[in-house]
Amino acid sequence: MTAVADNQARLNAYYGEFTSDKEKEVLGVPLRMVGSWAKNDADGVANVFSEDGILILPGDVLKKGRDEIRNFMVAAYAGPFKNTGVIGNPVDVRFVTDDVALLRTHGGILAEGETEIDPELAVRSTWVCVKNDGEWFLAGYQNSPRGAGATLRW
Amino acid sequence: MSVTIKASELLADAGIVEDVSYYRSFDSEDEKAVLTVPMKITAGWARNDADFFASIFVENGSLLMQDTQLTSREQIREYMAAGFRGGLKGAQVSGGPLEIKFLRDNVAMVITEGGIILAGESEIAPERQIRATWIIVDEGDGVWKLFSHQSSPAPYKG
User: Fold this and answer.
1) Average pLDDT, stretch B1-20?
2) Per-residue confidence (pLDDT) for residue A1, from 0 to 100
């Protein structure tokens, strides 16, 4: 298989059942996150968000706006997230309006050198996406543990 | 044409007495109207009323409960009805808003903190403390509804 065909096959596998142009367009948001994360690029991650986007992670992470998100990611890539990657596949795509969409993915952080997610690191993610001036951005991102880590919460 | 209904009226229509302390600093008319959704949800828990709880969602509303992703009002109603008969009998929720962003005139994203208080408990146990993202929409009738709710474990600061 050529590199281009291989890449297209991987993309098609990622899109799964969400094959309309509109769905594929908004599903570019997680792809940009994955791409920036693979380079441990804090600016790139911050720029996936809208200017006032919000990042929530389990524990005590609530970051508001690109600057806070960038600073958090710079520190994370220097420490606990160093050389990690992220992966995720869409399980739900729903449009609130033509320019606001909600994505859910199953995925998580890949430890250095790993190709599969440790079950303890598996998460469900909500991506709140907004289309501003023709481009989709993350207005909000949040994830929570799957499996045994999904304790009695609502 | 869109309709605007005041928060106090939206709550009164649901038989809820307005607790203005819930709004914290988010006290513009628009923000208060959006926050009627978490206030109604809180009342739904307090009443252990799955029908009322589910009615606060849009038809294809989604809710993540523990490791179960619910994706319609009917699934939510069934799940909560079973819960209120079982492990969630007598459970309530408590919490408040941390952030409100209007993504569009009729779409708001709200971040809250809080959690479940089980029957017999007086506060949110540390392992049940959460932050949640709510997508709240007005489908045109002025009654804000819940499109999506997901929480993550996070400390409750009150």
Assistant:
1) 93
2) 60
Task: Choose among B124, B132, B125, B131: nearest CA to B154.
Answer: B131
pTM: 0.95
Q: CA B114 → CA A32, A121, B63, B124, B144, distances in Å? A: 32, 24, 16, 7, 21
DSSP A56-114: EETTTEEEEHHHHHHHHHHHHHHTTTTT-EEEEEEEEEEEEETTEEEEEEEEEEEPTT-
Residue B152's contacts (CB-CB under 8 Å, 6 or more residues apart) are A56, A57, A58, A142, A143, A144, A153, B130, B131, B132
B93 and chain A: CB distance < 8 Å anywhere?
yes
What amino acid is encoded at A136 in this protein? W
Please give the mean pLDDT across all residues of chain A.
94
Distance from CA of A8 to the nearest CA of B (A): 30
What are B81-122's pLDDT values in tens digits? 999 999 999 999 999 999 999 999 999 999 999 999 999 999
Whole-angstrom distance, CA of residue B122 vs CA of residue B118: 8
CB contact (8 A) between residue A139 and residue B109: yes
CB contact under 8 A, B66 and A153: yes
The beta-carbon neighbor of B154 closest among A58, A140, A147 is: A58
